[in-house]
Amino acid sequence: MAKIAFVGLGVMGYPMAGHLKGKGNHDVTVYNRTPARAADWVREYGGRSAASPRDAARDADFVFSCVGNDDDVRAVACGENGALEGMKQGAIYVDHTTASAGVARELDARARARGLGFLDAPVSGGQSGAQNGQLGIMVGGEPATFARARPVLDLYAKSCVLIGPAGSGQLTKMVNQICVAGILQGLAEGLNFGRRAGLDMDKVLSVIGKGAAASWQMDNRWQTMLEGKFDFGFAVDWMRKDLAICLGEAKTNGARLPVTALLDQFYAQVQARGGGRWDTSSLINLLARD
After folding, report:
1. What CATH number should be reported for the domain holding residue 82?
2. How far apart are CA 131 and CA 162, in angstroms?
3. Which tens digit of pLDDT belongs to each residue from 241-278?
């Protein structure tokens, strides 16, 4: 049994921390910016809540964070009340936030200076993946640090892979988001085309869903896309945040992302229609109403 702190109990962090307590039977202390959310978690899973990230991290073997963006990561990790300030020598900080590779390298350097381990470990699989313990975890960091953290990460992982040094996990998540956005646009156009052509889309998907066009997005989103249902899943606001990170990194490494830049504009149009909290599959809404 390890002593663990989990910082950030959003739609992903809440169930992830729950797996650490429930499946892992670890000693878990949580922190959330909204204390009522932490109190709800303690009532559901047990464990304890703390008044600050620093308090939550005190004497912990592992500290996990899952927050919103670079600034949020710095806010919970650094400073007088940050988790790094409360961690003991040899402990490991694991950040599950989808953030920039730059902030991952920054935290890695801060952790090293304090005799701590660090892993950037963004996840893929959405809220359902977090709830079911079936997340894909892409990790950047040192092999020895990863080996120590792996048994804990496996409590909510379907796949957990060390990609390379610090920042590599975040860069891999950028690849993931670039691919997901492109797949969703292709799926949206195909579904809209088939419907306007008068095809029986149940039959169409029963065929193409077994061939080269198949994808997780097709399996899980085609029906709700055709029904115009988007009040669930990974929000457009979050995707735009992630695509901004991708486009910013591309300026640094010289990668051309013309389709990604276009899709970012499409998602901006969805936001303008009031769809900021819609699922990212709502790209079809732009085609259905043109």
Report:
1. 3.40.50.720
2. 23
3. 999 999 999 999 999 999 999 999 999 999 999 999 99
**Among candidate residues 112, 142, 164, the one where a domain is terminated:** 164
- Active-site annotation, residues: 173
- CB distance 69 to 99 below 8 Å: yes
Angle at 60 between CA 54 and CA 65, to 5 degrees: 60
The region, left, alpha or beta by phi > 0 then psi within -120 to 50, assigned to residue 162 is: beta
- Domain co-membership, 20 together with 100: yes
Task: Give me the amino acid identity at 48.
Answer: R
Domain that holds residue 250: 172-288
Question: Do 119 and 209 lie in a common domain?
Answer: no
Question: In this structure, what is the dihedral angle of CA atoms 82, 29, 133, 142, given to the nearest 10 degrees?
Answer: 50
- Extract the tokens encoding 228: 């115009």
If you count them, how many residues does the chain have? 290
Total structural domains within the chain: 2
Region of 198 (left: φ > 0; alpha: ψ -120 to 50; beta: rest) is left
Phi, psi for 108 (deg, rounded to 5): -60, -45
- Please give the mean pLDDT across all residues of the chain: 97
End residue of a domain, out of 164, 188, 209: 164
- The dihedral sign for the CA sequence 111, 116, 121, 127: negative
